[in-house]
Amino acid sequence: MRYRTFAGTGIRASEIGFGVWSVATTWWGVRDSGLAKNLLAEALDLGITFFDTADVYGEGQGETLLAEVFAGRRDRIVLAGKFGYDIYSHPGPRKGHGELPQDFSPAFLRRAVEGSLRRLNTDWIDIYQLHNPRLEAIQDDRLWDELDRLRREGKIRATGVALGPDIGWRDEGLAALRGRAELAQVIYNAIERDPADELIAEAQRLGRSVAARVPHASGILDGSYDPARHFDRSDHRSHRPRSWMQAGLQVRDALPLAGGGRTIGQAALLFALAPAAVTSVLPNITSAENLREFAAAGDLSGLTDEELAALGSVWQEHREELAQPMSDSLSKPTPVAG
């Protein structure tokens, strides 16, 4: 496993991270808490040190899982958390892909971080991220001033934003990177490159960092998507339009990813790690088999300039047909005043 440092923070993390949402919600298929714990524990054994969660994942389950699995080993891992969704006024399981109301007021931030620290059973969160923020939150100096206070108190070490996909995130990402955020977490893979390419270039210019999620394009680039069937409504991927998934398969078949002793899933991770500004990539991990496959990518050589150029050419050819939202029916959150 190789490690990189989040620019300007001194926080060093594994290139391959673990997106905890895949084991703390039911949207991706892991519904066994025992399996979830085993995957998290084995991930650390394999050299993965970067774990990204949020208070809204399983209404705190994503945090309590980490606390239980890594009790006594907190100093060996890097924790990224998120806030902004009001899980306190709207308790209970979420239904479908709709979003909860959001609150980015300084008072709610304080409540959110204290709740997360308690559930994580830790004194600090390494990277604390605004979860799907709108521009008004990113431009609110009161919020960032409160984040700075939390940093001085030792409760957080660095700040960031986790963005996309359907709320609009190009302008938000640019504003955050040009403002006070040290990290932008974005969707980025060989099929979905808009607007991440622009945000990664801006992060590089400004000396900021990016964490890339959904590196396998909802299963297209790891072999888990079966075009003969679509997923039921409990699976996050069911919100991808069929037409988008089919176009993605056409692109995948043309992508020169596999070969050189690597699987297509590993090559997809290496693509996401190619830009210098990308510090870590967060694949969706749901089994011991894909955990070991993805972790092993951290020992492989990166894609060559020729391979990256070929990927760029194929993507440009299909760019328009892939420029679709996940769904036209996602419900939007209601901002909370304050």
Q: Any overview of this molecule?
A:
The protein is of the alpha/beta class. The chain has a single domain, classed as NADP-dependent oxidoreductase domain (TIM Barrel). Helix content is 37%, strand content 14%. It contains 13 helices and ten strands. An eight-stranded parallel sheet has the order 3-4-5-6-7-8-9-10. A two-stranded antiparallel sheet has the order 1-2. Helix 3 links the parallel strand 4 and strand 5 (78-83). Helix 2 (33-45) packs across helix 3 (61-69). The chain starts with a strand and ends in a 16-residue tail after the last helix. 47% of the residues are buried. Mean pLDDT is 87; it is low at 326-332 and 334-338.
**Main β-sheet: number of strands, strand sense, barrel status?**
8 strands, parallel
CATH topology: TIM Barrel
Order of helices and strands: EEEHHEHEHEHHEHEHEHHEHHH
Mean pLDDT: 87
Percent in helix: 25-40%
CATH class: Alpha Beta
Q: How many β-strands, per DSSP?
A: 10
What is the 3D form? globular
Name the poorly predicted regions: 326-332, 334-338
What structural class do helix, strand and pairing data support?
alpha/beta
Q: Tell me what the CATH architecture is.
A: Alpha-Beta Barrel
State Rg: 19 Å
**What's the total helix number?**
13
Strand coverage percent: 5-15%
Q: What count of domains describes the coordinates?
A: 1
Strand order of the largest sheet: 3-4-5-6-7-8-9-10
